[in-house]
Amino acid sequence: MTTDYHIIGNYISPYVRKVLVCMELKGLRYTIDPIAPFVGNERFSELSPLRRIPVLIDGDRVVNDSSVICQYLDERHPQPALYPADIGDRAQARWLEEYADSWLGDVVIWGMFYQIGVKRFLFGEQADEAIVSRAREEQLPQTLDYLESALPTEGFLFGALSVADISIASFFRNAAFVRYTVDAQRWPRAAAFIERTLALPAFRKLATYEERMLRTPLPEQREILRELGAPVSAETLGCATARKSMARRD
User: Fold this and answer.
1) Average pLDDT over residues 32-52
2) Distance, CA of 224 to CA of 128 (rounded, Å)
3) d(CA 162, CA 81)
4) Residue 174 host element (H or E)
5) 3-class SS at 51?
6) In what order do the strands lie in the sheet containing 28-33?
7) Nearest residue to 114 (alpha-carbon basis) of 164, 16, 106
8) DSSP per-residue letters across 3-38
9) Hey, how many other C-beta atoms are within 10 angstroms of the C-beta on 177?
10) CA separation for the pair 104, 37 (Å, rounded)
11) For residues 189 and 152, is the Cβ–Cβ distance under 8 A?
């Protein structure tokens, strides 16, 4: 293990998960303040002007955005590489990472996970069932049609595991939180790809924390994570009152 970093962001977030999987693969030490962006205080707003997670702190340097963070870590710690060596493959990997972050973020997170989970538990609001239905019945099937044509029958997209594989799988992990399962008969490549990627040790390690957090009230999560051995920071930028992120779309 090498180098200490600090991460601000909740284990449930696919964007945080992507960064943490990359850190696990590279053997990087970190502490984490496992807050959701909706409960960040004013200091959090200073560090993350859009009130988004994750935020990486490396000494005096603050790095925002999961894709920027992953590239920063890959350049600081080149092995194992997160991006393909071939320039064309590297461009395609970045496109698929962006596709996951932007489009799957819209469909899975804002269309399903936020509506079904966050709105209810943090803000006491009901889900917009029209948004959920459109995401689940129209947008996600269209997405899976595309991924079925792009994903490999075996292994990973560019041979060795890359940020593209990690990004795509991270969002389908959140889809599972709202009881969405990929139909393996309709999309066999996508279903098998997601299953084998999420079965990797780095994902499974984080899943232990995620599963407990989903069953634990927000005020108790830090203590539960400590009991599980997570590297929780001594201090937090969380606050008692939730407020909606600038990233909110509903």
Assistant:
1) 92
2) 31
3) 8
4) helix 163-177
5) coil
6) 28-33, 2-8, 55-58, 61-64
7) 106
8) EEEEEES-TT-HHHHHHHHHHHHHTEEEEEE---GG
9) 17
10) 18
11) yes
The answer, yes or no, to whether residue 1 has pLDDT greater than 80, is no
Query: What is the rounded CA–CA span in Å between residue 178 and residue 104?
Result: 14
Does the structure show a pLDDT above 70 at 242? no
Place of tokens 């590239």: 71
Instruction: Decide: 74 and 82 in contact? Cβ < 8 Å.
Output: yes
Evaluate whether 40 touches 238 at the Cβ level (below 8 Å): yes
Distance CA 163, CA 203 (A): 13
Query: According to the model, what pLDDT value does residue 243 have?
Result: 65
Q: What would the two tokens of residue 70 be?
A: 């992953």
How large is the average pLDDT for residues 63-77?
98
- Residue at token pair 């989970």: 117
63, 37 contact by CB (below 8 A): no
Question: In whole angstroms, what is the distance from residue 140 CA to residue 100 CA?
Answer: 12
Residue 195: how many other CB atoms lie within 10 Å: 13
Mean pLDDT (whole number) for 174-179: 95
Q: Using CA atoms, how far apart are residues 183 and 115, in angstroms rounded to an integer?
A: 22
Residue 236 has pLDDT above 90, yes or no: yes
> Is residue 240's pLDDT more than 80?
no
Phi, psi of 116 (to 5 degrees): -80, -35
pTM comes to: 0.93
Q: Is the pLDDT of residue 124 over 80?
A: no
Is residue 128 packed enough to be buried (19+ CB in 10 Å), middle (13-18) or exposed (0-12)? middle
Alpha-carbon Rg for the chain, nearest whole angstrom, is 17
The bridge status of strand 28-33 relative to strand 55-58 is unpaired
How many Å apart are CA 14 and CA 169, to the nearest integer? 9
**Tokens 């205080």 map to which residue?**
41
